[in-house]
């Protein structure tokens, strides 16, 4: 029985830094990121630990204690205190601040005290609770906390990551160490503490120390009888008595810090679901952790629904009359959400400002379907998130979305790019004031089979109610977006002149698809699968056994034990086997050695497995007419660049010969004679020249010289004909690195050169192209002052982290401030070009059609006899999309396949 069952008080005390570090090393840093370069593995692990402990222990009060930088009074006693600890991993930096933000949103009190450690805060609060007859639970990996264990104080000591805990009661302490908890500091003084750099008595372990303490009563007794203790251990004790006394002084807990005494200061229940949703969105945390948040954190009863009571009436749909009651005789503004439920099939959430309902389409008769279809077509405005997806879903289910559809996701994206999600629930929560319980897990097939009809009906009803509520929340969200757009005139222009017209074009491109040569695809798949099998076979032959090359755990054994290769960087699960680490490792090995050859086949296996995955995906994606229909996403990239999904045709590898061959399976379809590709040459650099007004870069583009050759000649101080490939490659990396906010460190890793050389190379670039240096500096400072960056079309991206106290977040925001205007402007220009090309081709009544956009490239399917007309339209449309201070150069290629059309 927990304290919350009896009405007694139970305070949970957590050592913040200790548990954050354990969480950091328990989860891979490269697996958790907020999408802006800040690792969040410690934050996620800490939050998960807090959720688990609060759920299982059910405390009434919680406090989290943190250390402050700069040391404590113990450092003045012993200047080597904690001196042996390794440097803080760079990925950990900034995560404590984020943990504190999570705690604030959850209403959990956290504390720091100048000149004292988290241990002292915990000791003070635990001792106070015990004195008042309350219960205290301490969560800490620091063994100094053992001294606090007593009848009212229990230590939860992590033994595996931050999820598995050992319960240390007085009996457990005595069983493990052979002494009472209050004598543990005496034992630690004798044995020492490596983590704190406190050396103990050489040759004396816990068992010997415990035997002495039991015999002589306590440490003062041991010291008083030190002369009587025989043998080497006794002499060692006598030789190190000063160390022992110092250790005991250092590990004594402070019990009387001046901390708030009002229990209400630490009471659970003041968490804010809206705020924690915002924080978790910012951290890019998914649904699972949200679903597991205990209700007690928010002052709610267990099992109480998290969603707020709807303001709109909930209607039950059972026929044409009830549909008409919902939508009205003359439909006004409707809001829609859609889903394919595992139990209820296709379901639709429909809401007016006054009523809402969840509709199972399978249960509608023909009359009800007709009323719904009429409402969808005749509504004054249909509000939804992701119009193309909703339109496609409705069409699949026999309905059409009228032309007055309003995409709230697109509007929200333009106003605030970079959010974790723009789905209906996210918009309803953040803009419409709604609250939703975490999404339920998708049930396993076996669970579905066991459901009773009654439970199944309840689950279907709950799914419909959730859809209806999310639709209803879109109405206040729409009003809020209208208000924000009214205050941001630039956003209205971007939406009206660029994004909304483009959305229609992208839907049309999706419908067109691109033709695939199926025999060529099948042959390529067979060939690539053969390469994968060969790589597995050859790698296994080198070590004499079959190896699962896709298993990091097996690879660690083979690389660092069987082959005894030098270890790579340390990670939580051992040593890294990522591509960068293995490439660095291979460069250190002699060609022809077993290690070098094994890595060659391993890297070959990974490359060909990835390419095989692309080919297999394409084989599943084509329709009956052998065409692949990718979906272009407008809200995926904060810079405004389009993304391609299901399948992703923007991410086909082209840097290797095998990767390029994948483009050979894309062909001009039946009734068309060829494919035409057109792309911008060095558009980011041209935008850089335009924005920076650097005379050197402008001269390079206007002269028509090879840009990177021209820049290299200036940076290295040689004539253009003396520039060698290495010089050109380095300056090219610098040019694009600056456009993407690359640091000297990043440049050194990319070019595999010392950081000092990378810094010198960058400085030399800035010396020759001072306009670029000044522009980059001024763009960051301007963004810091205004709070946003903007593209040449005025598209804004707000960056509140530019003034953050968190150094890593601030530096990430500065990199975004450097690259967003350039990448965003490039995205704007290609979008303008797409609109121009589509409009001109339709005006000319051509049979040719635009199929794909791959960042700065367009792919067009050319009808017989229209090649020259298409070439002229595409070049003029792209070249005239926007007037820069340097010319926009458009390259064109023609061929039967996408690869042949490359240029």
TrEMBL record:
<dbReference type="GO" id="GO:0003887">
    <property type="term" value="F:DNA-directed DNA polymerase activity"/>
</dbReference>
<comment type="function">
    <text>In addition to polymerase activity, this DNA polymerase exhibits 5'-3' exonuclease activity.</text>
</comment>
<feature type="domain" description="DNA-directed DNA polymerase family A palm">
    <location>
        <begin position="659"/>
        <end position="866"/>
    </location>
</feature>
<feature type="domain" description="5'-3' exonuclease">
    <location>
        <begin position="9"/>
        <end position="269"/>
    </location>
</feature>
<keyword id="KW-0269">Exonuclease</keyword>
<dbReference type="InterPro" id="IPR036397">
    <property type="entry name" value="RNaseH_sf"/>
</dbReference>
<keyword id="KW-0235">DNA replication</keyword>
<dbReference type="InterPro" id="IPR018320">
    <property type="entry name" value="DNA_polymerase_1"/>
</dbReference>
<keyword id="KW-0540">Nuclease</keyword>
<dbReference type="Pfam" id="PF02739">
    <property type="entry name" value="5_3_exonuc_N"/>
</dbReference>
<feature type="region of interest" description="Disordered">
    <location>
        <begin position="433"/>
        <end position="453"/>
    </location>
</feature>
<keyword id="KW-0234">DNA repair</keyword>
<keyword id="KW-0378">Hydrolase</keyword>
<dbReference type="InterPro" id="IPR012337">
    <property type="entry name" value="RNaseH-like_sf"/>
</dbReference>
<dbReference type="InterPro" id="IPR029060">
    <property type="entry name" value="PIN-like_dom_sf"/>
</dbReference>
<keyword id="KW-0548">Nucleotidyltransferase</keyword>
<dbReference type="InterPro" id="IPR008918">
    <property type="entry name" value="HhH2"/>
</dbReference>
<dbReference type="Pfam" id="PF01367">
    <property type="entry name" value="5_3_exonuc"/>
</dbReference>
<feature type="compositionally biased region" description="Basic and acidic residues">
    <location>
        <begin position="442"/>
        <end position="453"/>
    </location>
</feature>
<dbReference type="InterPro" id="IPR020045">
    <property type="entry name" value="DNA_polI_H3TH"/>
</dbReference>
<dbReference type="InterPro" id="IPR001098">
    <property type="entry name" value="DNA-dir_DNA_pol_A_palm_dom"/>
</dbReference>
<dbReference type="InterPro" id="IPR043502">
    <property type="entry name" value="DNA/RNA_pol_sf"/>
</dbReference>
<dbReference type="InterPro" id="IPR036279">
    <property type="entry name" value="5-3_exonuclease_C_sf"/>
</dbReference>
<dbReference type="InterPro" id="IPR020046">
    <property type="entry name" value="5-3_exonucl_a-hlix_arch_N"/>
</dbReference>
<protein>
    <recommendedName>
        <fullName>DNA polymerase I</fullName>
        <ecNumber>2.7.7.7</ecNumber>
    </recommendedName>
</protein>
<dbReference type="InterPro" id="IPR002298">
    <property type="entry name" value="DNA_polymerase_A"/>
</dbReference>
<keyword id="KW-0808">Transferase</keyword>
<dbReference type="InterPro" id="IPR002421">
    <property type="entry name" value="5-3_exonuclease"/>
</dbReference>
<keyword id="KW-0227">DNA damage</keyword>
<keyword id="KW-0239">DNA-directed DNA polymerase</keyword>
<comment type="similarity">
    <text>Belongs to the DNA polymerase type-A family.</text>
</comment>
<dbReference type="Pfam" id="PF00476">
    <property type="entry name" value="DNA_pol_A"/>
</dbReference>
<keyword id="KW-0238">DNA-binding</keyword>
């Amino acid at each position: 029985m927990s304290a919350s069952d009896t009405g007694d008080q139970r305070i949970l005390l957590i050592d913040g830094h200790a548990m954050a570090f354990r969480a950091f090393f328990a989860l891979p840093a490269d697996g958790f990121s907020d999408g802006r370069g800040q690792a969040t593995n410690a934050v996620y692990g800490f939050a998960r630990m807090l959720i688990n402990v609060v759920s299982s222990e059910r405390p009434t009060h919680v406090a989290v204690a943190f250390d402050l930088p700069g040391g404590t009074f113990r450092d003045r006693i012993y200047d080597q205190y904690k001196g042996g600890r390794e440097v803080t991993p760079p990925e950990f930096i900034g995560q404590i601040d984020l943990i504190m933000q999570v705690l604030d949103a959850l209403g959990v009190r956290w504390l720091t005290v100048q000149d004292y450690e988290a241990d002292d805060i915990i000791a003070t609060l635990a001792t106070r609770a015990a004195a008042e007859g309350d219960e205290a639970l301490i969560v800490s990996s620091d063994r100094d906390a053992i001294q606090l264990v007593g009848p009212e104080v229990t230590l939860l000591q992590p033994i595996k990551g931050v999820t598995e805990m050992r319960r240390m009661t007085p009996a457990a302490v005595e069983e493990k160490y052979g002494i009472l908890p209050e004598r543990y500091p005496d034992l630690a003084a004798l044995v020492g503490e490596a983590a704190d750099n406190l050396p103990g008595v050489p040759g004396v372990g816990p068992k010997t120390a415990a035997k002495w303490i039991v015999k002589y009563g306590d440490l003062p007794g041991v010291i008083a009888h030190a002369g009587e203790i025989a043998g080497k251990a006794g002499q060692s004790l006598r030789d190190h008595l000063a160390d022992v006394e110092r250790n005991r002084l250092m590990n004594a807990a402070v019990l009387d810090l001046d901390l708030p005494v009002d229990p209400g200061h630490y009471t659970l229940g003041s968490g804010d679901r809206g705020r924690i949703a915002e924080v978790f969105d910012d951290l890019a945390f998914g649904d699972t952790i949200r679903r597991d948040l205990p209700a007690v954190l928010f002052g709610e009863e267990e099992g109480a629904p998290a969603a707020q009571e709807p303001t709109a009436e909930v209607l039950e749909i059972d026929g044409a009359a009830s549909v008409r009651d919902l939508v009205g005789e003359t439909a006004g503004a409707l809001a829609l959400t859609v889903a394919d439920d595992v139990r209820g099939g296709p379901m639709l959430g429909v809401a007016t400002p006054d009523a809402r309902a969840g509709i199972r389409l399978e249960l509608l008769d023909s009359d009800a379907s007709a009323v719904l279809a009429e409402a969808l077509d005749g509504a004054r405005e249909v509000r939804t998130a992701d119009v193309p997806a909703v339109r496609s879903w409705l069409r699949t289910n026999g309905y059409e979305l009228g032309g007055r559809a309003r995409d709230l996701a697109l509007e929200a994206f333009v106003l605030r790019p970079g959010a974790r999600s723009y789905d209906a629930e996210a918009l309803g929560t953040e803009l419409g004031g709604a609250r939703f319980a975490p999404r339920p897990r998708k049930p396993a097939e076996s669970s579905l089979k066991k459901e009773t009809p009654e439970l199944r009906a309840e689950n279907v009803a709950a799914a419909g109610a959730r859809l209806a509520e999310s639709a209803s929340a879109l109405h206040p969200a729409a009003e809020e977006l209208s208000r924000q757009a009214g205050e941001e005139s630039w956003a209205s222009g971007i939406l009206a002149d660029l994004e909304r017209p483009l959305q229609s074009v992208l839907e049309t491109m999706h419908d067109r698809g691109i033709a695939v040569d199926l025999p060529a695809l099948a042959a390529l798949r067979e060939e690539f699968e053969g390469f994968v099998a060969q790589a597995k076979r050859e790698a296994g032959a080198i070590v004499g056994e079959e190896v699962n090359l896709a298993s990091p755990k097996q690879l660690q054994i083979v690389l660092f034990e069987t082959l005894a290769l030098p270890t790579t960087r340390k990670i939580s699960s051992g040593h890294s086997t990522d591509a960068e680490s293995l490439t660095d490792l291979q460069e250190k090995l002699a060609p022809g050695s077993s290690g070098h050859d094994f890595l060659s086949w391993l890297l070959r296996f990974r490359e060909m497995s990835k390419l095989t995955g692309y080919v297999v995906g394409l084989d599943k994606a084509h329709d009956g007419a052998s065409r692949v229909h990718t979906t272009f996403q407008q809200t995926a990239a904060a810079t405004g660049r389009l993304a391609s999904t299901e399948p992703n045709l923007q991410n086909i590898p082209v840097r290797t010969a095998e990767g390029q061959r994948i483009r050979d399976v894309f062909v001009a379809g039946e009734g068309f004679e060829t494919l035409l590709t057109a792309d911008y040459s060095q558009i980011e650099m041209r935008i850089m020249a335009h924005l920076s007004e650097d005379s050197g870069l402008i001269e390079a583009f206007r002269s028509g010289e090879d840009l990177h050759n021209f820049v290299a000649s200036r940076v290295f101080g040689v004539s253009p004909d003396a520039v060698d490939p290495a010089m050109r490659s380095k300056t090219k990396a610098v040019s694009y690195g600056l456009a993407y906010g690359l640091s000297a460190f990043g440049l050194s890793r990319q070019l595999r050169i010392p950081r000092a050389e990378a810094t010198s190379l960058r400085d030399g670039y800035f010396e020759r192209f001072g306009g670029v240096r000044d522009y980059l500096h001024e763009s960051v400072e301007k963004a810091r002052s205004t709070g946003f960056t903007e593209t040449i079309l005025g598209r804004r991206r707000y960056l509140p982290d530019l003034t953050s106290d968190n150094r890593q977040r601030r530096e990430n925001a500065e990199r975004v401030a450097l690259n967003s205007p350039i990448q965003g402007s490039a995205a704007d220009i290609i979008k303008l070009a797409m609109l121009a090309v589509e409009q001109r081709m339709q005006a000319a009544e051509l049979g040719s059609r635009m199929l794909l956009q791959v960042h700065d490239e367009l792919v067009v399917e050319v009808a017989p006899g229209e090649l020259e007309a298409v070439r002229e339209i595409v070049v003029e449309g792209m070249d005239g999309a926007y007037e820069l201070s340097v010319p926009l150069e458009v390259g064109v290629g023609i061929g039967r396949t996408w690869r042949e059309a490359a240029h």
